[in-house]
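Q: Got a minute? One more chain.
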Amino acid sequence: MKAIILAAGRGSRMGENTADVPKCMMTLYGQSLLDRCIESLRVASFDYKNIGIVSGYRHEILQEKIQALGLKHFHNSNWETTNMVSSLLTADEWLRRESCIVCYSDIIFHPSAVKVLMGSDNEIAITSYTGFWELWQKRFSDPLEDLETFKSNNGWLVEIGKKPKCKDDIQGQYMGLLFFKPSGWKKVMQTIKLPLTKPLEKLDMTTLLHHLIEQGNGIKTFECCEPWFEFDSINDVKMYS
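A: Always. Here it is, folded:
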């Protein structure tokens, strides 16, 4: 099994803090988000050789770390005009050959969230964070302004990525952790060839998941209660610190 870290973005909402480094190099208590991500994957039993990083903005900074640790390097040269799905497509050679964990690089997550996905026998699976409401109340004056819908039925995703009308529209928070078997990735490749609500280069992950559901593809969901954090702005960094 492989693990792919999506680390192509600058993180423009971080302002001048990412003027010279990618967002994943932001630090919390002296350790970068990327290092924390790699550490969680390592605790979940991934060797360095089975971890790949998709770089983009200031890729030369990541390249030094990638070479030093012996990681696989994928590169999204169009990072500035594309979104997460385009970054993931650069790792197609891994995804079509064996099962892969995919994770964002601007999150902090517990290794157990990775392990539950590694134990999945489903073609496509994701995790959801149960403590999202308390976290969003600290991050935003109105949590519903930022949150998106997330609904599942008997552990299968039925809705994601829409504007919620109330708290009950959100049964969990998508964590930026995914699992694909090669057969599941094949369904992704089939789906992106269809007419979509966004052009492929602008396609984000939750919109892709939405389209996969629309096409009748099952996406298994696993609830996680261990602490999880995402970093969207410098205010997040300050609050978590």
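A: The domain at 2-240 is CATH 3.90.550.10 (Spore Coat Polysaccharide Biosynthesis Protein SpsA; Chain A).
Q: Perfect, thanks.
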